[in-house]
From TrEMBL:
PANTHER family: ASPARTATE CARBAMOYLTRANSFERASE, ORNITHINE CARBAMOYLTRANSFERASE, MITOCHONDRIAL. Residues 204-347 form the Aspartate/ornithine carbamoyltransferase Asp/Orn-binding domain. Keywords: Transferase. It holds the Pfam family OTCace. Belongs to the aspartate/ornithine carbamoyltransferase superfamily. InterPro entries: Asp/Orn_carbamoyltranf_P-bd, Asp/Orn_carbamoylTrfase, Asp/Orn_carbamoylTrfase_sf, Asp_carbamoyltransf_Asp/Orn-bd. One of its GO terms (cellular component) is cytosol. The gene is pyrB_2. This is Aspartate carbamoyltransferase catalytic chain. Its EC number is 2.1.3.2. It comes from the Bacteria.
Length: 361
């Protein structure tokens, strides 16, 4: 490869968000003396990534460490996914998840078989997901699937023997999005990694949305419960009386992190350090916008150093007037997706050893 091509690849991999905060991976890496918890990542080899509850704090931090390394160094020359084929099977619309997974694979020299719409498969002729899973066993080494049916995971796994990465299942979970969200937060404030985060660095999280029916929000909160030393309170702001839902009720009750539910955003907004906002819910077999009366814009009463996360796509709940402010962590959050997905794929496909110069504790 010529120097010119290598430089073009390095520059393209370093491309980041155009507006809002720019997060450096170096500070996060330096907080661990540049070391990666390889043992925690090795546990992921051959595993499916289905729900956030399969992670502990150590693994979330290890994935963030490797993501930071991949973001800060040009590892393309190591070709860590050479010879591997990823199948991205998307039976539901996506901008970020499918394309960032595919970019992650291609940048590390793997290959992609892409199903951008389930209607181009035998589903259109009545084929079952279980039979499609059987076919995938011979076509690829890992399957990344999004599907509107919450039960799709069990269905495809009736026959699928390859690792499956859940890229969003109905109103179920979106575990890789939650890892991306936490990667952004840990880069923004590396002290949050510590079980003994200094008091002045601990955060009050506000959730504007309905975790019970919004998979990305639900998965984010689930990971937040791992950071007991860093999250001092979680406030859910929702139009609904019970926005939390069955999956989260018990974990929230059992967590030492205090939780409250309010419906007036004005009373709590000035106290929040991190605001996670989303309005799109997947209910039954279609999208709906919930919590539409809550809107954030440049006139919202935010703490001066508060940051906003949003899994995107957005609607009117998040005004473009915030894009050029330091409250905007959502573009940096989205920009980190390729590196988190690379870290996951390298770990699941057991190719950590092909990345040169990883130093371990
Ligand atoms: N965050 C997210 O899941 O975005 P897409 O729906 O565009 O994949």
């Amino acid at each position: 490869m010529s120097d010119q091509v290598a430089r073009a690849i390095a520059l393209s991999a370093a491309a980041t968000n155009s507006k809002g905060q720019h997060l450096s991976p170096t500070e996060l890496l330096n907080s661990f003396d540049g070391k990666i918890d390889r043992d925690a990542l090795k546990e992921l080899a051959g595993q499916s990534i289905l729900e956030p509850r399969q992670f502990d704090r150590r693994t979330v931090v290890a994935i963030a460490q490797l993501s930071a390394l991949l973001e800060s160094r040009n590892v393309e020359m190591d070709k860590p996914l050479d010879g591997k084929i990823a199948i991205t099977a998307f039976f539901e619309a996506s901008t970020r998840t499918r394309l960032s997974f595919e970019s992650a694979v291609l940048r590390l020299d793997g290959k992609v078989l892409s199903v951008p719409d389930g209607q181009v498969t035998g589903i259109a002729k009545g084929e079952s997901l279980a039979d499609i899973g059987e076919m995938f066993n011979t076509y690829g080494d890992v399957v990344i699937m999004r599907h509107p049916d919450t039960n799709c995971i069990d269905e495809i796994r009736k026959n699928l023997q390859r690792p499956l990465i859940n890229a969003g299942n109905g109103s179920g979970h979106h575990p890789t999005q939650a890892l991306i969200d936490w990667y952004a937060l840990l880069k923004w404030r590396p002290e949050l990694c510590s079980p003994n985060c200094p008091e002045e660095k601990r955060v009050h999280l506000g959730i504007i949305g309905t975790p019970g029916s919004m998979r990305a929000v639900k998965s984010f909160v689930r990971l937040a419960l791992l950071f007991t030393g860093a999250v001092k309170k979680i406030t859910v702001i929702s139009e609904l009386a019970d926005p939390v839902g069955l999956d989260l009720n018990e974990p929230l009750e059992e967590s030492p992190i205090p939780t409250e539910i309010v419906n007036d955003v004005r009373e709590v907004l000035p106290h929040l350090d991190v605001i996670y906002v989303n309005s799109i819910a997947f209910l039954g077999d279609s999208y709906r916008n919930l919590d539409t009366r809550y809107k954030l814009d440049q006139d919202s009463e935010l703490k001066s150093d508060a940051v906003i996360l949003h899994p995107l796509a957005r609607n009117e709940e998040l005004s473009e007037s915030l894009d050029c402010t330091d409250h905007n962590l959502y573009f940096a959050q989205a920009a980190g997706a390729v590196f988190v997905r690379q870290a996951l794929l390298v770990s699941v496909l057991d190719r950590l050893d092909q990345i040169s110069g990883i130093s371990t504790p």
